[in-house]
Design goal:
Largest sheet: 6 strands, parallel
CATH topology of the largest domain: Rossmann fold
Number of strands: 11
CATH class of the largest domain: Alpha Beta
Strand order of the largest sheet: 2-1-3-4-5-11
Bound molecules: nicotinamide-adenine-dinucleotide
Structural class: alpha/beta
Distance between the termini: 31 Å
Order of helices and strands: EHEEHEHEHEHEEEEHEH
Strand content: 15-25%
CATH superfamily of the largest domain: NAD(P)-binding Rossmann-like Domain
Radius of gyration: 18 Å
Shape: elongated
């Protein structure tokens, strides 16, 4: 496949390595210093674009790909307020778009397990639920997009909870997310249900960025010639499980 990489930072570099390993051609690498080249992207040259930049530029970058009719996958976090709008455009105007707050296969399994556990814990109100997430100190957004997805999976299935807050404790109706920034940690997420008698943990710990990058490349392979909105559940066929 012919790929454009938009955002050549830590993730962009890791994705480039995996694309080459899997025999793909990288036709364009766009970062801040050659940003104007995004206007030259076209379907003759590029099958799929992979976007990992920052919360302020993701929306415009994805719209550029829509305008050029290039299916795009994005993993940029911290801008979810505008995600619904792009999702709607991709569906209404037949643009190929896949978004994931976390591309790791293990985390997407965790998302499915998290929803299942939440459905069970809905009948045990004595347990307070919290989410802990730890990431490297250069991460711009807090809490992580992954923690927000986990929180939403819990809120959708536990009747007594209706929102989340950035704090290390939960109240009766608000789920607390404790976000810690430390060293070079690629990403740790833990869901904790606690009663007076015991604690139940569900957790995932990334060993490196490679798992996210591989998931992004699998998603790009899935998106070739696709139109409409997709998620990692579609790539990994997890929809029927949770
Ligand atoms: N979804 C996932 O699985 C996953 C995994 C890891 C990181 N992330 C997210 O991906 C994003 C990137 O992470 P990173 O660690 O590579 O960050 P990074 O800071 O190392 O890289 C971001 C790159 O984007 C470039 N950039 C900024 N504005 C741009 C623009 N308008 N056009 C093109 N390039 C531009 C920057 O110069 C930089 O090189 C972050 O939002 C991070 O939270 C998501």
């Amino acid at each position: 496949m012919n790929i454009a990489i938009i955002g050549y930072g830590r993730m962009g570099h890791e994705i480039e390595r995996i694309l080459v390993d899997r025999g793909h051609q990288i036709k364009s690498i766009i970062d801040q210093d050659n940003f104007e080249e995004i206007h030259d992207l076209n379907t003759e040259q590029v099958d799929v674009a992979i976007e990992f930049t920052n919360p302020t530029s993701a929306y415009a970058n994805i719209l550029h790909c829509f305008n050029a009719n290039i299916p795009v996958i994005s993993g940029t976090t911290g801008w979810t307020d505008k995600l619904a709008k792009l999702k709607q455009i991709s569906i209404n105007e037949n643009k190929g778009f896949l978004y994931a707050s976390n591309f790791s296969v293990g985390v997407n399994v965790l998302f499915a397990l998290n929803k299942m556990l939440a459905k069970i814990m809905n009948t045990f109100p004595a347990y307070a639920v919290t989410i802990d997430e730890i990431h490297h100190t250069k991460k711009l957004d807090s809490p992580s997009g992954t923690a927000i997805t986990l929180a939403q999976g819990i809120i959708d299935n536990v009747d007594r909870l209706n929102s989340w807050t950035l704090a290390d404790h939960s109240t009766n109706d608000i789920l607390g997310i404790n976000a810690i920034r430390r060293g070079e940690v690629p990403g740790i997420h833990e869901i904790k249900y606690e009663s007076s008698f015991d604690t139940l943990h569900l957790s995932h710990s990334a060993k490196s960025r490679e798992g996210f990058a591989l998931g992004a490349v699998l998603a790009a392979e899935f998106m070739q010639n696709k139109i409409g909105f997709f998620e990692m559940n579609d790539v990994l066929q997890l929809n029927t499980i949770s």
